[in-house]
């Protein structure tokens, strides 16, 4: 095809004399919010270790179960439910929440496996993981008698 015949074909097509097919395409859908969830009806979950011996903190003794329930509204979509515990980790253990005593942390477990802070875990609403906590101390430290507290947020959310 010569240069002039290409130009003539282009001119014919540009004024609509070339045949072609076209179709309109439409897109639609519905945006849905995940159903709301609550943990223990929004109440604070408290775990009391009682009296803890300063020389007995070994990451095993004083282990406690964290009792909690998750309730979510009904949904027609298969949402992915995730659970996380958000808080400040100790400098010596990323699965332990920092307490008010610098050398002491509260290690978290989900189904007997260390549960890393601020890291979501995929779960099912019908069988949420068992959560446990235990006091741990910084290796090589000596704990002095003191009251201690720690705070974290248990978060269940759909993705």
UniProtKB/TrEMBL annotation:
InterPro entries reported for this sequence: Adhesion_dom_fimbrial, Adhesion_dom_fimbrial_sf, Adhesion_dom_sf, Bact_Fimbrial_Adh_Pro
Signal peptide (residue range): 1-23
UniProt key word Signal: yes
UniProt KW keywords: Signal
Ranges of residues in domain Fimbrial-type adhesion: 26-159
Protein's name in the database: Fimbrial protein
